[in-house]
């Protein structure tokens, strides 16, 4: 990575044998920057970070970095395309931007929202879905760089997940809304939760939906059941640090991970419902987001004081 490393031992062998951490230097994200988003590529060899400095940093897990610029304001969300050749980012400047990994200039800029874009996700190779603080969800055709559908919703959209067949959005009115791939004007189903939704994640098999809310609870829904039943995960000391704290499901669906306002990374066991481990000591500021590599080998956490920590077997 070209930065200072610190090895930390003591993680449970059932989950991780060791930990590796690094701090981004001043020549990358500046010291005053809050990192809002982080995401691994499908190959697990790259990760991207984005924050209030309006820059997306690309990192090779073993060495090197590059910079993608073009946003006029801060980055709120990052996603790699399924093929691993492009990267999508949502921005405070009311747009979403698409880059090729071999070009630092945006290939496509999607504009039309009237407030910041909080989420941007690929829906297949040629479509993107965005959610915004302007209480709308938009479907975009990447080949035309055009918005082809607008769905008005009744609350600030904080995050969304999607496939070619559905879109699920989380909102500040303590509701999760399911949409039939935006083909209909309204939502198909509403799920009540117990606080502002800060993030959503979906399992690799598309069967489980994870929400993180401001009531400091992670909730896991089985999408095969049309019910309000859910599993709830809490832990002593765990607290969402912001309205955009992002939690994730592990690639095998067996664990959940989220960062806390106290700087700890919390890992829950889905089967038992219990806290598996807490990874402390590396963050001194609230954690904004975590990402789990598709290989299952790495977890990365980022915080509001520009620190990014890579947790891995060593």
Automatic annotation (TrEMBL):
<dbReference type="InterPro" id="IPR019775">
    <property type="entry name" value="WD40_repeat_CS"/>
</dbReference>
<keyword id="KW-0677">Repeat</keyword>
<dbReference type="InterPro" id="IPR020472">
    <property type="entry name" value="WD40_PAC1"/>
</dbReference>
<feature type="repeat" description="WD">
    <location>
        <begin position="250"/>
        <end position="278"/>
    </location>
</feature>
<dbReference type="InterPro" id="IPR015943">
    <property type="entry name" value="WD40/YVTN_repeat-like_dom_sf"/>
</dbReference>
<dbReference type="GO" id="GO:0000045">
    <property type="term" value="P:autophagosome assembly"/>
</dbReference>
<dbReference type="InterPro" id="IPR036322">
    <property type="entry name" value="WD40_repeat_dom_sf"/>
</dbReference>
<feature type="repeat" description="WD">
    <location>
        <begin position="35"/>
        <end position="69"/>
    </location>
</feature>
<feature type="repeat" description="WD">
    <location>
        <begin position="110"/>
        <end position="150"/>
    </location>
</feature>
<dbReference type="InterPro" id="IPR045160">
    <property type="entry name" value="ATG16"/>
</dbReference>
<dbReference type="Pfam" id="PF00400">
    <property type="entry name" value="WD40"/>
</dbReference>
<protein>
    <submittedName>
        <fullName>ATG16 autophagy related 16-like 2 (S. cerevisiae)</fullName>
    </submittedName>
</protein>
<keyword id="KW-0853">WD repeat</keyword>
<dbReference type="InterPro" id="IPR001680">
    <property type="entry name" value="WD40_rpt"/>
</dbReference>
<feature type="repeat" description="WD">
    <location>
        <begin position="68"/>
        <end position="109"/>
    </location>
</feature>
